[in-house]
Amino acid sequence: MRTKSYFMKSWIMIPVLMTFVACASNIKKADIPSTANPQEEISKLDSDLNSAILKNVDVLAKDEFDNAVKWHREAKSDLAANQKQDEVLNDLRIARGYLEKSYELSATRGAKAGTLFDARQTALTAGAGTYSELRDELKDIDSDVSNQSKNLEKISAEKMVKLQDRYIDLERKATVLTHLGEAKANINGAKKDGADRYAPNTLRKAELSLKTAESLISANVRNPSGFAAPVATAKNDAMMLNEVMQVISKNGGKLPESTAVTMVNQNRQIKNLESDLSVTSSEATAKEKDLALTKENLDSAKSSIEIQRAIEEARAQFSPDEAETFQQGNSLLIRLKKMNFASGQASVPGPSLELLSKVTDVARALQAAEIKVEGHTDSTGTVAQNKSISTERADAVATYFKTNGFDDINIEAEGYGFEKPIATNKSKEGRAQNRRVDIIITPDETAIH
């Protein structure tokens, strides 16, 4: 029975796999060179997919866009599983092919429905995709539009307006939640605590203010100045209700509503007076502090500019086949390509001394305050072996710096083995990229001027 079950499952999986492959064969693959970095390409595609959503491509060409997302996930999965680099890149070529096709289709389909998608984007900007209570409604509208996407130019004006109105109503609901969500929460919380019994007048006032604000938002969705005042009133009245209920609760529910309101108003007056006193006392030194802060910001800006200039000059000292250089904040990362350590050895090779000498010149030019040396390997060998050899190599390079004029600054050395690959370890090229030494130089910010 187990054998039969296994073969049944296998026969079920075959059509699924064939469908997956067939889908890929129907699309023109994008051109991604075999030398591309898979991780960088995945990140770029992730950004491009998000940009496509902002252009409604996910709705206008849903099937193609969904396939792009699916192959993007496949690429991520293959990279995580250490599949061959070209397999990952092939996933990405298919994903980009689908994305390009979805753009092509969306341009044609959306040409006569611009106002519909303007309404959708405005709803998204208002937060329709952010609030959990609105996501299902947005999904339903998007689904209806996607089902019509292939024939948008044939949809009647009446039906197009109805779809557009649904997005507009979603925008209104999102705007209400943005401006009145907290007030609604305060009122609902007070009602759960018995506000209709203990503070009915304050509750009634808060609910009336809320309804007024909602009405004015609906009439002025894209004109905040038209509803700013009633929204402020609604927030204040809801907060008042919350504070009144707190006072009543602290007194065991036996305090009359009118007395609680008086106590809250008195507390607010005291807080306002305390705030006024604080402002008055701080105004005396405000100008002096502003002047000091301005000078401090100016000095900091000048220092940052000088550091940027020094780092850019340092980066120019290395040719592409010697090292890659990256700026990390106010530090310079130098990724050495020509260390050429002998297999299993940690001694600095003679031919690499010229490159290290160039690094020391750069460190002097930057007036290094700290240097960190990181050793990295590929995944060949055991974890312990790679950790050990990467640490020994980092120590050897660090010792070189200490014996060549940098014995008076902090120099750290650390080996990471193959913990931090920058390429797949499944290919010869990828392993070569992973066998490296990274040097991070942090300049003395006070010395660079």
Give an account of the 3D structure.
With 449 residues, the chain is α+β, with helices and mostly antiparallel strands. It has three domains: 22-109, no CATH class; 118-250, no CATH class; 312-443, OmpA-like domain (60s Ribosomal Protein L30, Chain: A), CATH 3.30.1330.60. The protein has 15 helices and five strands. The protein has helices at residues 2-25, 38-54, 57-60, 62-80, 85-109, 114-126, 132-148, 157-192, 195-198, 200-219, 228-250, 257-315, 353-365, 383-402, 428-434; strands spanning 323-328, 331-336, 368-376, 410-415, 436-443. It has a five-stranded mixed sheet. Helix 14 links the parallel strand 3 (368-376) and strand 4. Helix 7 (132-148) runs antiparallel to helix 8 and helix 11 (228-250) crosses helix 12 (257-315). The longest helix is centred in the middle third of the chain and has 59 residues, at 257-315. It starts with a helix and ends in a 6-residue tail after the last strand. The model is unreliable at 1-22 (pLDDT under 50).
What is the radius of gyration computed over CA atoms, rounded to a whole number of angstroms?
32 Å
Q: Give the overall pLDDT as a whole number.
A: 84
Side-by-side strand order of the widest sheet: 1-2-5-3-4
Number of separate structural domains: 3
Distance between the termini: 80 Å
Beta-strand content bin: 5-15%
Keyphrases for this structure?
single chain, 449 residues, alpha+beta, 60s Ribosomal Protein L30, Chain: A, 3 domains, five-stranded mixed beta sheet, disordered N terminus
